[in-house]
Design goal:
Layout lengths: L2 H6 L1 H11 L4 H8 L3 H9 L6 H11 L3 H5 L14 E3 L2 E5 L8 E7 L9 E2 L3 E8 L1 E6 L2 E6 L3 E5 L4 E5 L5 E7 L8 E2 L6
Antiparallel strand pairs: 1-2, 2-3, 3-10, 4-11, 5-8, 5-10, 6-7, 6-9
Helix pairs in contact: 2-4
Length: 190
Amino acid sequence: MTTDEVLAGVGPRLRQMRKDREVTLAALSETTGISVSTLSRLESGLRKPSLELLLPIARAHRVALDELVGAPSAGDPRVRSKPIVMGGRTHWPLTRQPGGLQAYKVLEPKRRQEPDPRTHEGYEWLYVLSGKLRLVLGEHDVVLTAGEAAEFDTRVPHWFGSTGEGPVEFLSLFGPQGERMHVRARPKGA
């Protein structure tokens, strides 16, 4: 629906709402401080609705502004994406749109791996939901437990995975630069 179509429907919607509530133009004018003639022109479509006119009317009718203008609904906000398995990890995308901030729920199975730190442009946040997450970040080698978070510049060599004691479930958030392919921080065997 275009903006013009939405605006064209405001007048009739205002009139219907007022009549449904059995309110006269004079009574609405008194409540809102908007003249009777302005309210009449709004309802007949001879005056374009503006925020300064619609906000007091919405307050008088005790409705959301969206209801007054008949704004289209934003749709179902739930993200329903399929899990992605990469390198033994299962990732559930928590964001719909590519680009911008990306969020994933990740399940890392119980396994012992040799850390292989990588770097890339960006910034990353991790939050452990359950289990233990091993994070190697530069010279640091730490274990995060449920409820703990970490944030870091991804230009610092980093690696994270299971401690080998059990699976770990965590959230991973990163900016657009974090979507780029990881590159090795050091050659293998160095």
